[in-house]
Amino acid sequence: MALPSSSFFLLLLSLFTFLCFSPSLAEIRFSEVRNDDRPIIPFDQFGFTPTGRLELNVSHISLSNNNLDLSKVGFFLCTLDAWLHVLQQLEDGEIRCALQSDLVKPVYTFNSLKGSNSFDNLYLENDADQYNLVFANCYQEQLKVSMKVRSAMYNLDGKSGNRDYLSAGRTILPRVYFLFSLVYSGLAGIWIYIIYKKRLTVFGIHFFMLSVVILKALNLLCEAEDKSYIKRTGSAHGWDVLFYIFSFLKGITLFTLIVLIGTGWSFLKPYLQDKEKKVLMIVIPLQVVANIAQVVIDESGPYGHDWITWKQVFLLVDVVCCCAVLFPIVWSIKNLREAARTDGKAAVNLMKLTLFRHYYIVVICYIYFTRVVVYALETITSYRYSWTSVVAAELATLAFYVFTGYKFKPEAHNPYFVIDDEEEEAAAEALKLEDEFEL
Ligand SMILES: *[C@@H]1O[C@H](CO)[C@@H](O)[C@H](O)[C@H]1NC(C)=O
User: Fold this and answer.
1) What is the DSSP code string of 105-152?
2) How far is ligand 1, taken at its centre, from the CA of residue 252, in Å?
3) Residue nearest to atom 12 of ligand 1 (CA)
4) Given the CA of residue 152, which atom of ligand 1 is nearest to it?
5) Which residues pair with 125 in a beta bridge?
6) Could you tell me the CA-to-CA distances from 16 to 12, 19, 105, 305, 315 in Å, in that order?
7) Where is the CAND6/7 N-terminal domain (predicted)?
8) What percent of the chain has a predicted confidence (pLDDT) above 90?
9) Quick one: 329 and 382 in the same domain?
């Protein structure tokens, strides 16, 4: 069978592309710097519109050496492109300190402190672009800095003048999520109708599928509320708890559903084999870990201390889950192939085999698209269109749900399960042909 190995390779590849992932999320952030002598400390990233604002409140500043020229210590804003040039300038020796470059926009240099140990600063950014907020300390070994930093970046809304704490390009996300939650509510409605109409051929798994769709709709609704709360207030404490509960349940149920369908549970057989149960016993706790990691990642921002670690935990777990859910499908395909050879009902089994092969391919595509392609989109699209990667991921997920629902819907005359003699013969022929090809 020419099935899995190449796709596993793709999944491994996706792991590596992921490890250098950096998102752009910004809201109000609090960070603490302790006795730090790093020359550059990145704080946050944000896409500004022409009415961008940066509020910087720094307190508890303490410097290990007070006899230096503090104009070489301070905060600045810088686009990624400009930063690459600054690095070049530093390397060529044109400048000695990033703050001296005319490519960066100084926000506050510490010579303005004049003995004080805190400052508040409002910076107006009128050039629309994506900027990084960075702290530069051009004395490295000679100077250690401690401080508490509160940074808030936002854009003013054109008409109302309200603050919008979502980065340009992400500001329509609440609406996107809300729209998708409506779509899933619609799907849930259709599914309930189908279950009711075909109630004589409904299996347990159909109710399970219904719960997955409902959870997805609720999850998206919470995500919309969560994002719109961030948009308005800059902090992420709207419907947080509900949101995490739903994404947690959604993650577990989606993976469980893929495993259950993959094993053919309730279609092919009413029970699970031991090794299939083991897959579930691996995937469910891993989803718990993945969700905890996701919470930490969301709360601590890209430059937090443990951010990278948790991101890696999350990605590793995600990849393991994605691989694990493929095994039951592969086993089913193998069993069906063997059954097709040995028992008399070749055609029935062949049809089921085709179904499971399609399902396998679609699961692979779904996993690959939502992890690798979406990441690639995120990297190559301009910050102004960063919502497109979210839409792409949600569309792929929607297509996956619709495909699964369509292929495994309850149906009295499901071609995969009821077959007349003529088709049986044709299918048997096809199988013979296929065998010859393989030999
Ligand atoms: C932070 O600084 C800004 C700009 O000076 C000021 O308007 C705001 O009140 C300060 N916020 C806090 C929490 O100190």
Assistant:
1) EEEEEGGGSTT-S-EEEEEEE-S-EEEEEEEEETTGGG--EEEEEEEE
2) 42
3) 57
4) 1
5) 52
6) 7, 5, 34, 21, 9
7) 33-155
8) 31
9) yes
Residues 131 and 188 grouped into a single domain: no
120 CB near ligand 1 (under 6 Å): yes
Q: How far is the CA of 254 from the centre of ligand 1 (A)?
A: 44
Tell me the sheet residues that pair with 40.
Answer: 136
In terms of Cβ atoms closer than 10 Å to its own Cβ (0-12, 13-18, 19+), residue 5 is exposed
**Residue 128 and residue 219 in one domain:** no
With beta carbons less than 8 A apart as the criterion, state whether 208 and 267 touch.
Answer: no
Which domain range does residue 352 map to? 173-438
Summarize pLDDT for 306-334 with one digit per residue, the tens.
Answer: 777 888 888 888 888 888 888 888 888 88
Q: Which residues pair with 41 in a beta bridge?
A: 135
User: What does the alpha-carbon distance between residue 142 and residue 291 come to, in Å, rounded to a whole number?
Assistant: 42
Cβ–Cβ under 8 Å, residues 419 and 351: yes
At 63, the amino acid letter reads L
402 CB near ligand 1 (under 6 Å): no
Give residue 355's region: left, alpha or beta (phi > 0; psi -120 to 50): alpha
Paired with 122 in beta bridges are 55
Return the CA Rg of the chain. 27
The verdict on the CB of residue 55 being under 6 Å from ligand 1 is yes
> Domain tally for the chain?
2
Contact 234, 154 (CB under 8 A): yes
Percent of the chain's residues with pLDDT above 70? 84
Residue 272 belongs to domain with CATH number: 1.20.1070
Confidence of residue 119 (pLDDT cuts 50, 70, 90): very high
Choose one of 110, 131, 164: the last residue of a domain: 164
pLDDT of residue 316: 87
105-109 and 73-78 strand pairing: antiparallel
pTM of the model: 0.81
Distance CA 210, CA 54 (A): 45
pLDDT in tens, 26-76: 478 888 888 988 888 888 889 999 999 999 999 999 998 888 888 899 999
Residue of higher predicted confidence among 302 and 90: 90
Residue nearest to atom 6 of ligand 1 (CA): 120
- The CA-based diameter of the chain, rounded to the nearest angstrom, is 95
CA angle 258, 264, 269 (to 5 degrees): 145
Residue 155 or residue 305, greater confidence: 155
Q: Final residue of a domain: which of 164, 196, 217?
A: 164
Cα 344 to chain centroid distance, Å, stands at 46
Q: Residue 425: in which H helix or E strand, if any?
A: helix 421-438
